[in-house]
Amino acid sequence: MSIFDKIFGGKQESSEEKSFWNKIESEEDLEKAIENSYKNKIAIFKHSTSCFISKTVLKNFEKEVENFDGKVDFYYLDLLAHRPISNKIAEIFEIRHESPQLIVIENGKAINNASHQHISTSII
Fold this sequence. Notes:
- By secondary structure, the chain is α/β, with parallel strands linked by helices.
- Helix content is 34%, strand content 24%.
- It has four helices and five strands.
- It starts with a helix and ends in a 9-residue tail after the last strand.
- The relative contact order is 0.20.
């Protein structure tokens, strides 16, 4: 990273570019994620791209995930771009919508969830 990047902020890797994220952008993507939960535990991170708190929580969570050694598939949902899918998740799993929010799913059922500062790999 150059001195100018340090001072003025260089190009940062976005969440969608992190290698461990699988995007949820359609109901079909959500269905596939739920199907996958029968093979591996999954975690869906619901993120509001316009919220500073959500961005901070996401960044901290991504640092944790990079050192996480559990067998989990991570999914990322941009709430602003895909609000109907977020509503569908709340309906299917009977979990009140919050942002940011992490929902852990195993065998098609939500087994844990957290929001805001409670989001951590420890709930997985």
